[in-house]
């Protein structure tokens, strides 16, 4: 498995997102698409990449050699991954949450992500 840079992949994903938005809505939406990527999509994207790394699916240089495929070695991390996926799905859902609930959800997601990466 060839190690790759998370930074480079994030740049490419953001660029692709902007191109998709521009192709649908026009060039005047390019700047807004970049801002939307940074504000709403980047952290979920980065979280998905960290999960890939910890589960041994993809080696991201910035996540470190020590964390690669760690989930298979520590059963407690499997529980954290399951909870993380559940919370992420809840946050991504269509329902409108109270601000405090969303804030608590995001804080718990951050805690779990920190457990995954040492």
Outline the structure in words:
- The protein is an all-alpha fold.
- 69% of the residues lie in helices and 0% in strands.
- The chain is flat, with a radius of gyration of 16 Å.
- The mean pLDDT is 93.
Low-confidence stretches: none
What is the molecular shape? flat
Number of helices: 4
Helix percent band: 55-70%
Number of strands: 0
Mean pLDDT: 93
Helices and strands, in order, run as HHHH
Summarize the structure.
69% of the residues lie in helices and 0% in strands. The protein has 118 residues and is mainly α.
Q: How are the SSEs ordered, and which strands pair?
A:
Layout lengths: L5 H20 L4 H25 L20 H18 L6 H18 L2
Helix pairs in contact: 1-2, 3-4
Key features of this structure:
118 residues, mainly alpha, 4 helices
């Amino acid at each position: 498995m060839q190690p790759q840079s998370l930074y480079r992949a994030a740049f490419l994903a953001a660029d692709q997102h902007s191109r998709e938005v521009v192709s649908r809505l026009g060039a005047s939406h390019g700047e807004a698409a970049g801002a939307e990527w940074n504000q709403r999509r980047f952290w979920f994207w980065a979280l998905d990449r960290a999960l890939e790394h910890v589960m041994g699916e993809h080696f991201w240089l910035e996540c470190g050699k020590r964390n690669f495929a760690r989930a298979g070695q520590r059963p407690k991390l499997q529980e954290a991954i399951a909870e993380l996926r559940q919370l992420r799905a809840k946050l991504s859902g269509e329902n409108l949450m109270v601000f405090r609930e969303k804030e608590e959800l995001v804080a718990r997601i951050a805690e779990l992500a920190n457990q995954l990466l040492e």
